Structures are given as C-alpha cells and as structure tokens.
Amino acid sequence: MKKILLTVAMMFACIATFAQHAVGSVTIQPKVGMNIASMTDMDDGDVRIGAVLGAEFEYQLTDIFSLSAGALYSMQGIKASEDGVKATLKLDYINIPILANIYVAKNFALKAGLQPAFNVKNTITGKYQGVTASTGNPIDAKTLEVAMPIGASYEFNNVVINARYNWGLTKVFDTGDSRNSVFQLSIGYKFNL
C-alpha cells in the first residue's frame, strides 16, 4: 500500500511541474518555418506557400502558465489560375503574436491569443505563356490586420516545434469580406536570458 501511495504522490508531483523552464525565467526563441496561406471568400484561389521567420520572448509565470510575444515576418496571400494566367497575390506582414501558453503535459503547450499585423508588401505577380509580370503598384490592402492565433508546441532539449493557425478577424481589403487564413509550422530554439 505504501508503494502505491508513494507512486501516486510522485505522479501528482510530476503533473504539477509541466514547464521545462523555471518560474520567473525569460527565454528568447528565434524561429523559422512555413506558412500555408489562403483567404476566406476566395473560392477560386489556391494556397500560397511562404516563409515565416522571427523571434518570440516567453516569460514563465507559473509551472504551467506563461506569456509570450514576438515579431515574425510572414509571407501570406493567395494564388489563382484562370484562362492560362497564373497570378500570386503577395501579402506579407510583420506579425506581433501575443500568446497565453498553458503547459498541459511535460514540454507540450497549448497556445491562444491575439496578433496585430502590419502589411509590408502587397503586390500581384502574374505569369502568362512563360512571361512574368508584376503590377508594380501596391494593391489596396489594409495596413493593419488582427488575427487570433491558436496552436500547440512541443519542446525537446530547447528545440521547439510549433503548429499554429492564424484566424483572421479583420478584413484584408476595404471592399468584400476576405480575411487571412494561415496555417503555420515552425521550428525554433529557446535561449535563457
């Protein structure tokens, strides 16, 4: 009976200490990854594969809860193809994810928060019969976008694998109701500060 009680006590002690980093610690995580971006209300569009890179800071509040914020360059937009013309709408942003992280198991965190984003590139490039052309002029995309990122991460020896979905809350353009929809995979490395 003592062995059973001791085993149960040890299991509860392990459950109470999910976070790998000490309470009060601050880490920085440079990261790089891939976006699979699309837009709502664009039924004839295809996804745009793009890069995401930047860094996030994380502050460990308790054993199971932390807050993080960062800056990420994110290549988003959409591709379309019609009557032999292939076009890519390039909407690149500087994303500022602000997330609450809950460690539900050792090294495994669920994340959710808000993400303001600032548009830094908004062009259309097209290809017809092997000839590539660009609008040269920016399209009428809004400068500020807000999304709700939700996702999960797993950390092993300070290497962090992230999977995140950024659900666009604001319209991309003044007209229509298109919003960004981005699935993001990234890998990073946590450094203690």
Order of helices and strands: HEEEEEEEEEEEE
CATH architecture annotation: Beta Barrel
- Principal-axes geometry comes out as elongated
- Strand-pairing-aware structural class: mainly beta
Number of domains: 1
- By oligomeric state, this entry counts as single chain
Cα-based radius of gyration, to the nearest Å = 21 Å
Q: Number of helical runs? A: 1
User: Which sheet architecture does the biggest sheet show?
Assistant: 12 strands, antiparallel
* End-to-end C-alpha gap: 45 Å
Low-confidence parts lasting 5 or more residues at pLDDT below 50? Answer: 11-17
Return the CATH class.
Mainly Beta
**Helix percentage range:** under 10%
What portion of the residues fall into strands of 2 or more residues? over 45%
Number of strands: 12
Kindly state the mean pLDDT as a whole number? Answer: 87
Q: State the CATH topology.
A: Porin
Q: How would you characterize this protein structure?
A:
This protein has 193 residues and is mainly beta. The chain has a single domain (2-192), classed as Beta Barrel (Porin), CATH 2.40.160. Helix content is 7%, strand content 65%. It has one helix spanning 2-15; strands at residues 26-39, 45-46, 48-60, 65-82, 85-95, 98-105, 108-128, 131-134, 144-156, 159-168, 180-189, 191-192. Strands 1, 2, 3, 4, 5, 6, 7, 8, 9, 10, 11 and 12 form a twelve-stranded antiparallel beta sheet that branches. A hairpin with a 4-residue loop joins strand 3 (48-60) and strand 4 (65-82). The chain starts with a helix and ends with a strand. The model is unreliable at 11-17 (pLDDT under 50).
